[in-house]
Amino acid sequence: MSGERLTIKTPDGEFSAYVARPAAAKAPAVVVIQEIFGVNAVMREITDELAAAGYLAICPDLFWRIEPGIDITDRSKEEWDRAFELFNAFDVDKGVEDIQATVDLIRKDPGCNGKVGSVGYCLGGKLAFLTATRTDVDAAVAYYGVGLDSLTGEAQKITRPLLMHIATEDGFVPKEAQAAIHAALDNHPLITIHDYVGRDHAFARTGGDHYDAGDAALANQRTLDFFKANLG
User: Fold this and answer.
1) What InterPro entries does the record point to (predicted)?
2) Which of 80, 76, 77, 70 is nearest to 34 (CA)?
3) Phi, psi of 102 (to 5 degrees)
4) Staple partner for 119: which of 14, 106, 141, 144, CB 3.0–4.6 Å?
């Protein structure tokens, strides 16, 4: 396993992605979709951990259209302010297109066996949901996705499995939004939703203010089990 950089070309320009390769010569791939802090140490660590678990993992720089190479933390007010500026400037539709370009590239990689999944956190959780509705990923996982209550109508387009992790005390996803998500998606045959009672947003972000080791481990194991079942 080693970290490397790949370049992904689109009609609008090119951007980079952090890649971690597993020990196996061929493996399923997983696209890691960033939070609002860019491809930072937390995202690179997740990518590395997926490679250690046997996946060809790739984390694209989805903020490249605003500013390439964003790498900030959740440790200061200035960084939080910058993160929300990026979030507000981000074009979700273009972001999904960039994820599809990432999927296309990694699916053709000599180290990929042809299967590709996605996993996203926060903003990335929203994008992971949209990969299930708008791209050809084989399986998707969304951790505490934001704004999903306004996107549930797209669920009719889902043809591959989707796993969702919801924090019941998520400061960015109000109770009424959670209720709307459950009402719209609970009975969908391809969607599995797990609630984490008492947890706040980003409970799986290592080092974050709301990190909970127990539920983070539970969610991460459920994610690995889901990928094993659906990506092989």
Assistant:
1) AB_hydrolase_fold, Dienelactn_hydro, Dienelactone_hydrolase-like
2) 70
3) -65, -45
4) 141
Residue 201 annotated to the active site: yes
Q: What is the CATH number of the domain that holds 127?
A: 3.40.50.1820
Strand order in the sheet with 3-10: 3-10, 13-20, 56-60, 27-33, 112-121, 139-143, 162-167, 191-196
Q: Out of 170, 200, 212, 215, which one is annotated catalytic?
A: 170
User: How many domains does one find in the chain?
Assistant: 1
Spatial CA neighbour of 204 closest among 114, 136, 150, 144: 144
Is the model's pTM score more than 0.90?
Answer: yes
Give the whole-angstrom CA distance, residue 23 versus residue 9. Answer: 27
Annotated active-site residue 149? The verdict is no
Residue 82 identity: R
Render each residue's pLDDT in the chain as its tens digit; 232 residues.
458 999 999 999 999 999 999 999 999 999 999 999 999 999 999 999 999 999 999 999 999 999 999 999 999 999 999 999 999 999 999 999 999 999 999 999 999 999 999 999 999 999 999 999 999 999 999 999 999 999 999 999 999 999 999 999 999 999 999 999 999 999 999 999 999 999 999 999 999 999 999 999 999 999 999 999 999 8
Structure tokens at 141: 């996982």
Q: Which of 48, 138, 201, 210 is catalytic?
A: 201
What distance lies between CA 202 and its chain's CA centroid? 12
Q: Are 46 and 20 in contact (CB under 8 A)?
A: no
